[in-house]
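Support reply, case 0932

Customer input (verbatim):
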Amino acid sequence: MEGSMSERLLATMLLCGIASVGSAQTKISGTSQCNKPVTAYVLPAGDRPDHSFGLTKLKCTWSRPMVMAGAQMQQDEITVLSEISGNTSSDRSYVVGTFSNGDKVFVRPVGKAVLAGGKPQSSAGTWAYVGGTGKFTKVRGHGTFKCRSNSDGSSTCDIEGNYHIPKR
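Our regenerated output:
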């Protein structure tokens, strides 16, 4: 076996550390219902007709709430910045999610959407927690989302992932 005893010991410690971090994650999933956007702006980029930028604000409630540390997710307020090119958009968002106990989480989703006639049909991507309030101040985690648009302009999103709250 190659490597010094200290290298093997370090490798073993790292593997054990990775395993313990992985086991500390708690799986979560839920479904949110987002209303038709409260605010939506689209501005042409000016270089070609099918290239523009959008800014959208929407509110969502949870039909199948995520539960974290004993609190149920109740609502989200989402701000989306999109670069639209033809029938696709690249989206960066910021989410403020509110739990049943009043605590909040802050989330950074990044994804792509498929458009038809300039309107979203579906979207998918990844997200990561970037902070929160109360018991979620130091929350960490990440996951995926998949959304489908409804004929009334609303959307339904399935979200899954994991989280960890470090001990204070």
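We compared this against your earlier run and they match. Two observations from our side: Residues 1-23 have pLDDT under 50 and may be disordered. Residues 5-23 form the longest helix (19 residues). Please reopen the case if you see a mismatch on your end.
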